Amino acid sequence: MATTRTPAQMTVKFFPNDKGNPPGKLADAEIHFTGGPLGGLKLIGFAVWERKAGGRNVTFPARQYSVNGERRSFALLRPITDPATQDALRDAIIDAYNDYELALAESA
User: Which domain holds residue 53?
Assistant: First the structure.
């Protein structure tokens, strides 16, 4: 199997949680791919959260299912080998959200 590496070409779009429910959720987020083989597609299901102890976190798309009445979650975006690879995407989304907040504050 041959693989080709291309630079990530994406834009992060935010949809603020104006209702404040659930508490701590700041916004929903989507990744819009602007080039490469994923160009013209979007990946939905991300959310930006305020941590109780300070700072922010990003949750990734997941699907819920039940096993013996217990609710579980299956992550849809998974690392191939190194679990730390998700951190780069999480950091990029948080950075984009910080820029989004700055732009909102400047326009107000």
Answer: 10-107
Q: Write out pLDDT tens, residues 90-100.
A: 999 999 999 99
Q: Is 81 part of a structural domain of the chain? A: yes
The count of structural domains within the chain is 1
State both tokens at 14: 């935010």
Residue at 1 is within a domain: no
Whole-prediction pTM: 0.85
Burial string for 3-34 (b: 16+ CB within 10 Å, else e) reads eeeeeeebebbbeebeeeeeeebbbbbbbbbe
Task: Answer for the pair 64, 54: CB distance below 8 angstroms, yes or no.
Answer: no
Measured at the CA of 43, the angle between CA 17 and CA 80, to 5 degrees, comes to 120
